[in-house]
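Marked as duplicate of an earlier ticket. Keeping the data here for the record.
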Amino acid sequence: MRLMARSNRHDAGGRRVEAVRPKPSTLNFTAHSLQPMAAASRFGRYGPMEKHDVRGLKIDGTELDRLRARRQMLREMDPEQALQVIEFRRDLNFLQALALAKQEGSIIVPNFVHDRILTETKGRKDKKYLEENYPVRTGTLIIYEKPDVPFDEEVFFKGITFNIPSKFQGKVNCALVIVYPDFESIALGNNKYELRAADENIHLIERFPKKDGWYIPHAETGVPHGESAEANSNTKYLYRLNGSSYVGLLACDGYVYYGRQDVGAYYRASCMFKLALF
């Protein structure tokens, strides 16, 4: 099914703007907008969860090494096998997602793994599977500035701050990408948080698009980048904020409606999403 009605977005000043491409209304999440998911299916298992406050996701070296090894294992899996071993949860905001992954010692499935599942497996043609499990928030964190504005000392978005390493300051029309578990969340009080990552774990995505559109995905992270391209099986549609900086996890958007993966880089931390864990 294709939803042809246009959806509304707002720029940094609160003005309503139209997306270049219509979005499914199901992407306007509230705490109650997602339909209940099946208790089990041949593609994944679901379970109840409790909400937990985040007080800083401190991970010691041994645990971090274990999680990185699991992330690499997942990356190297055949996508059909990856589809079988990941588990989906529902109705989680950004901080709840980080807390749950920490609690369970799990990897938040990154964008590049979802990309392979959605393009290379039998599940990509299973409407029931897609409707139950997508859109989903990924484990790929992205930070970008307003178009044509260079990185300064920090980027702030809706209560979340990321301090820009000096080697990236001054770079224009680029994005910084970090894949879980290589970042942590530190509670600052008053519902404000800081995300931290070591410099060596940050991917620099040059020529990050200034506007929504079709682009070639970055080989390592799957983030759309470069010059505008034609819509085909090798390109992804990027949604970003118009005229605003951003800090947040990428979401795989609207695959059921458009027949390919869309990448959402504009959701607030408070938006409720499904989440895939390994």
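See parent ticket for discussion. The chain is about 20% helix and 30% strand.
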